[in-house]
Amino acid sequence: MKSTTFACAAAAAFAFGLTAMPASARDMTYGSYTSPTSTTMRTGIAPLLKRLEDQSNGEMKWETFTGGAMGGAKELLGNAGSGILDASLVVDIYVKASLPHASLISGMMVVGENPLAMAGAMNEFQLLHCPGCLKDHEKNNVKAMGFTATGTYHLICKDEIHTAEQLRGKKVRAVASVGRAIQALGGTPVSITLPEMYEAMQRGQIDCATGSAAWLDTYNLQDFSKSIVTDSLGSYFGSMNFVINKDVWDDLSEANQKIIKANMARVSADVVFAYAPEGAEAIKNFEAKGGKAYTFDDEMQARLAKARADEYAYTIAFGKKNGIENAEELVTTFEKLVDKWTGIVKEIGNDKEAYIQRLQTEVYDKI
User: Fold this and answer.
1) Residue 204 in contact with residue 242, Cβ under 8 Å?
2) Could you tell me if residue 325 is inside a domain?
3) What is the DSSP letter of 165?
4) CA–CA separation, 22 vs 238, rounded Å?
5) In whole angstroms, how far apart are CA 343 and each of 89, 114, 121, 355, 356?
6) Mean pLDDT, 10 residues at a time, over the chain (367 residues)?
7) What is the CATH number for 196?
8) Strand pairing partners for 172?
9) What's residue 324's pLDDT?
10) Is residue 321, in this structure, part of any structural domain at all?
11) In terms of residue numbers, what domain contains 196?
12) Do 145 and 37 have their domain in common?
């Protein structure tokens, strides 16, 4: 009843053009389109909000609205900016017009072979090296932090599909550059949001989906899938874990702002480090239930490598065509940051605490 009352009141205020009041220190709201059992919510956001409450001695007390209860993937940015929500999860590729600089970069999903490096690069890029990104946040009346990456993307299909002949003409849920890669591999990319994916596959609107192997379990794709290709199709590295209304942020005490910033490196790491083991476990469960794991043949590997090699140049041209005059500078800067973070990850290995420390010192201590 409490959630329904809040949602109705917030929607009514918004509809009548009323100015949203800053949330009281003890009554803050967070919205996500993902389920409470998703990797992002379960391993990242839920523990984050609990830490914020504990470390602020109850001054930041959060109520969460998951599964799209307070807006879907395309509404959450606006709902946070307008004050319907105090904070939210935002996926930039679903709101490209509002976040053109960030979505230009995160659209290069196919180059994201190492999610740890991509998450590090995206945090540093958006917060320290992309003035256009910060201006986009300001235009939307939000402050965005805690960028993360999914696990590597894979081809998950209702039938056995791992060759060009098998994929030809098949409809595949794929976005951004992964969609271009699927087209290069012979499939037909279809743009469907994450919450729509299960039903679309169930109803035969798509034959395959691209995404983390963990989705076999977390989104129940194993219910009607027969194959997964273990070769990486890249990863999505533009998830904004913590997008907070700018007025609410400004209303927070300096101490509570510091608490939030001090937790952003950890929430990014919590999510990205969770995907790999969850993905491996999901594939194991999938095979135990009769599913099959495959690798691409030489022809498919060559096509994928070409799609990946072409992506930076494609993105520069696409950005310029769509009015981002410094597209080449942005893409080149990001490419260098990927190289930097690839080196950092190689240096620290799979040490999560070392990764958090480097994110903190390389990024969050500088903002």
Assistant:
1) no
2) no
3) H
4) 27
5) 29, 11, 11, 12, 15
6) 40 40 66 94 97 97 96 96 98 95 96 96 98 98 96 96 96 94 96 90 96 92 96 95 97 96 97 94 96 96 95 96 96 97 96 98 96
7) 3.40.190.170
8) 189, 208
9) 96
10) no
11) 153-235+282-313
12) yes
- How many other β-carbons are positioned within 10 Å of the β-carbon of residue 237? 29
End-to-end Cα, the chain, rounded Å: 40
Is the backbone of residue 233 left (phi > 0), alpha (psi -120 to 50) or beta?
alpha
Do 290 and 180 lie in one domain? The reply is yes
Instruction: Tell me which amino acid residue 48 is.
Output: L
Distance CA 19, CA 226 (A): 51
* Dihedral angle sign, alpha carbons of residues 260, 263, 268, 272: negative
Q: Within this chain, do residues 11 and 24 fall inside the same structural domain, yes or no?
A: yes
Strand positions, DSSP E, the chain: 28-31, 62-65, 87-91, 142-148, 153-157, 171-173, 188-190, 208-212, 227-229, 239-245, 292-294
CB atoms within 10 A of CB 302: 11
Q: Are residues 263 and 306 in the same domain?
A: no
- Residues, the chain, total? 367
Reading across the β-sheet that carries 239-245, which strands appear in turn?
62-65, 28-31, 87-91, 239-245, 142-148
Helices (H) and strands (E) counted in the chain, each on its own, are: 16, 11
Residue 322 belongs to a domain: no
Reading the block at residue 296, the tokens are 């691409």
